[in-house]
Design goal:
Layout: H1 2-17, E1 21-27, H2 46-54, E2 56-62, H3 68-77, H4 81-84, E3 101-102, H5 117-123, E4 127-131, E5 150-152, H6 169-182, E6 188-193, H7 205-210, H8 217-239, E7 246-252, H9 282-285, E8 286-292, E9 301-303, E10 307-308, H10 312-319, H11 324-327, H12 337-340, E11 350-354, E12 365-370, E13 373-378, E14 384-388, H13 404-421, E15 427-428, H14 434-442, H15 455-458, H16 463-472, E16 487-490, E17 495-497, E18 502-504, E19 511-513, E20 521-528, E21 532-542, E22 550-555, E23 558-563, E24 569-583, E25 586-594, E26 604-612
Parallel strand pairs: 1-6, 1-7, 2-9, 2-10, 4-5, 4-6
Antiparallel strand pairs: 2-8, 3-15, 7-8, 11-12, 12-13, 13-14, 16-26, 17-20, 18-19, 20-25, 21-24, 21-26, 22-23, 22-25
Length: about 625
Amino acid sequence: MRFLLALLTLAFALHAADKPNIVLIFADDLGVNDLGCYGRKDHRTPNLDKLATQGMRFTSAYTAQPICSPSRAALMTGKCPARLHLTNFLPGRADAPSQKLKQPRIEGQLPLEEVTIAELLHDAGYATGLFGKWHLGGAAHSPKQQGFDEVVSPPGNTKPSADEGGKGEYAITAAAEKFIEANKARPFFCYVPHNTPHIPIGAKPDLIATNAKAYHPEYAAMIETLDDAVGRLMTKVEALGLAEKTIFIFTSDNGGLHCLEFPGTPATYNTPFRAGKGYVYEGGLREPLIVRWPGTTRPGSECAEPVVLTDLVPTLLRAAGVDPAKTVGPLDGVDITKLLRSEPMPQRALFWHFPNYTNQGGRPAGAVRDGKWKLVEQYEDGSVELFDLSTDPGEAKNLATEQAKVAADLQKKLADWRTSVGAQMPVPNPEFDAAKHKALYIDFDPSTKKGGATAAADGPAWQEWRTAMNAAAKGHKPAVTPATGIISLHARSATVHAEKMHYEELSYKNVLGFWVNPADWAEWTFDVPTAGTFTLDILQGCGKGSGGAEVEFAIGEQKFLTKIVETGHFQQMIRRDLGTVQLPAGKHTLTVKPKTKPGGAVMDLREVRLVPE
């Protein structure tokens, strides 16, 4: 027995030795052109420039959402924000009379039911650590509960000093260095989400002075500090002899802040791209992405093929020997290892759904990029803009009229995609004030404003608009799901009345599945601690050709008949709101009964929730 245990231990050690380490650095609000290696002449980034010469630099890398929390959720799960119903920063911008549409309620945190890359890597033998910003929920939804062994989150704003920057850069870096040192003998996932260069802007006075000729000297100083922090981690990996077995990645969450939002801004400009953070135009979506993967990426290589942030999850999981299809099910990102090897991959369309208003002046919109074409659909009025990015990267010339067929095809693709991921849509705002809307979004269109010679010179032109934008939402509260009080009825806890349907416990399933007999049904008994109004929502999947089953969800006399949406795969889950119910305190029973089954199976059902209003 001892000999067998020794062999198993040795086999595990040898298997672990084959797994690459992963260092993933995530900046906050870094613009696509903010690095020297991306053409910025007034920013000093020698370490990131060096990283680009050692690996691959992507020139058409896109974020999952042009704003903070949704991008972080996508990076953790490999799922698009529309599917997660987490589409805006947390807690989001409140509804206001100046806004023509009422926004859908977003998830107030990354649900614990979502499986993260950290959880999967941890289960694969990795040490996992997060050093920096989480922004996906408070104590009840912390990174410790989502697969991270070690979490160090210094204050996001610090007083610059001899040994610290304005955003805790060096405290974050020191914690990451310590983690790498402690786990040098085993595979590790070191996730470093910096607070830099998010507002408020702060940097060392001496660095501000040496960057005096930059568009924004203090912002340029922050970028230099971030670059120095990245250099320290590069040096640590190299000093430990781990560089050849470590995937080292640098990217950011959304486009640079091109508007006045806080004293001392605009922070940067995204020229030649349009707009910035908070917009589905290129300036809000495009990001730097640098990947150094010895033995895979060729030093100094570039990739112009469009990729999206969610692609990192299946790519890194595959590198670690984890098959997403057998562990978590279908993801929205794809494995881009071939691109990293400078090999071709099939072209695909990329989609974004942003049904929210933002503090930067962004309005509800969706977008799709397919080859050279980019379509933006404005949800306020259904109008579309079509751009040829090969000749118009600044999205200045709308070709929707002269290329009507291309526009119509892309708009249909976008609509079909929204349905397949269960995207929430905004609805008319009953408190809409057309005059206020015109002043904030039409007369002054923030998306068209471009940076001038300096941030100091650009700032005053934004001031009147900024004051009105801040005042518009004052006194209103964002609509988010609460962190507590949700009643979750999971598939594993259902009472099943069935001939065929049953709970499928495999990690990538975790559903009531094999629902081929429409007479099969399920029920849950649950307690409501306090009377109130609840939104009833479900997490369902449905394979190709099986959509359209009618299913009744009932709590007593309150019944909801819904048609099951085809999602492309039975384990490709979408969350759908069915309506609201009034429930007194006490015990209740919820039943799920199919009424029709036009396809091979009714659906796979993972969860039913009652979310307090």
